[in-house]
Amino acid sequence: MPTENVSPAIPLEEGRALEEGRAHAAPPPGPKGNPFFGRVADASRRDPLNFMLALAREYGDLSTFRVGTERVYFVNSPEGVRDVLVNHYDNFLEERRREARDHGDLLSMLMLAGGEGGGEAMTPEQVWQEALTIFIGGFDTIATALMWAFYALSQNPEVEARLHEELDTVLEGGRAATFEDLGRLQYAERVLCETMRLFPPTWRLMRRALRDFHVGGYSIPKGSLVVVCACVSSKATG
Fold this sequence. Notes:
The protein is α+β, with helices and mostly antiparallel strands. The chain has 11 helices and 6 strands. The chain has 2 domains: 12-139 and 202-238, Uridine Diphospho-n-acetylenolpyruvylglucosamine Reductase, domain 2; 141-198, no CATH class. The chain has helices spanning 12-22, 39-46, 48-59, 78-87, 94-99, 106-112, 124-138, 141-155, 157-170, 186-198, 230-237; strands at 62-67, 70-75, 204-208, 213-215, 218-220, 225-229.
């Protein structure tokens, strides 16, 4: 997954300044109720995807609710997701940078790694790019994406026929594809992209905010649990 495609659209500090200038003092809207029992707690545990879809329909791009002792902020607009994962990525690396010790996990490995021959350590942005790529691209997402692609093709025979036509043309004789073939398999790329828009393999991501920051005109306080849902965001743009 090329990380260049998810670089900030505007400089990091400029994006933060714009958000802070638009931030509301009041928290975003959201469902009320007992955080331990009742409709909100039950729905968020039993059927989290439909719960998030309902939140997006009723409360818009950013909402908040409590589950137990946690204050959860649900971000679902594409711009808000970019703010959490791109413009504020270092919010979630700050504590590790201060500790500067090996926790025995992927993030520690990336933050402590130097270049070949003892070169400089990666910048926070490089750590974020590497971690995001490895995490999303390496944790069963390929198998899940292919499963949904085959399902979608089974429901759309005309698309399947066109895909086979392209494969037969580009991969003459049924040979295996190579890296050089990728640029010519444009319809296959479109099939996979649309499959992942409709059925994203990693449908939900959660982050813990290590400091206050601003998304969608609201201030999200330090310690909050921030949730983004690809299923909701992709369908909102479709």
